[in-house]
Specification:
The chain is of the alpha/beta class and 169 residues long. 36% of the residues lie in helices and 15% in strands.
């Protein structure tokens, strides 16, 4: 959005961090972890350069994935997703973003709240929305962190609705 705002008609945040300038993804994930025991228990830090160096990635404890990411999702989808999970590289999580109003701020933003999300609890979602309000907020009732599994038809309906919102000009 900051680099190519002219190529983005609308941005839709679904079960995602929506950062403001000066924030890093880790800032918001710490906020989520502070309000959620699941996240703290599930995190496994990986040290690719030795334990005396900063972590290089975060992995999630597979035994806690259902409770953290898929608490409303069908078992077959959880099984498929669990085998596909990979560690999350740590350095990009640390980067504080520098977002301008002229570029990043010119892109229309929409947020879809996932109220049953244990990875990004609703209180954290609401705090992100409050600190950098999008054009419009939608709520996907009964959705966990993986609404494409837990509420696929309802998610599709909202995405189509957002796509049909006319341009502001």
């Amino acid at each position: 959005m900051e680099l190519f705002p002219h190529k983005i008609a609308k941005s839709v945040f679904v079960a995602a961090v929506m950062l403001t300038s000066g924030q890093s993804a880790l800032d918001l994930l710490k906020q989520a972890a502070g309000s959620n025991d699941f996240i703290q228990e599930a995190q496994i830090f990986l040290y690719g350069h030795g334990k005396d160096q900063p972590p290089t990635a975060i992995e999630l404890d597979r035994s806690l994935l259902k409770d953290l990411l898929f608490n409303q999702s069908p078992a077959k989808d959880v099984a498929l997703a669990s085998v596909s999970m990979r560690p999350i590289p740590f350095p990009p999580l640390l980067e504080k973003l520098s977002l301008s109003h002229l570029k990043h701020g010119s892109v229309r933003r929409f947020y879809i709240e996932t109220p049953e999300d244990h990875a990004i609890p609703i209180a954290v979602q609401e705090a992100m929305i409050s600190s950098g309000p999008p054009e419009r907020v939608f709520r996907l009732k009964g959705a966990d962190h993986s609404p494409f599994f837990s509420k696929p038809q309802a998610l599709h309906k909202l995405l189509v609705e957002i796509a049909k919102i006319p341009s502001a000009s």
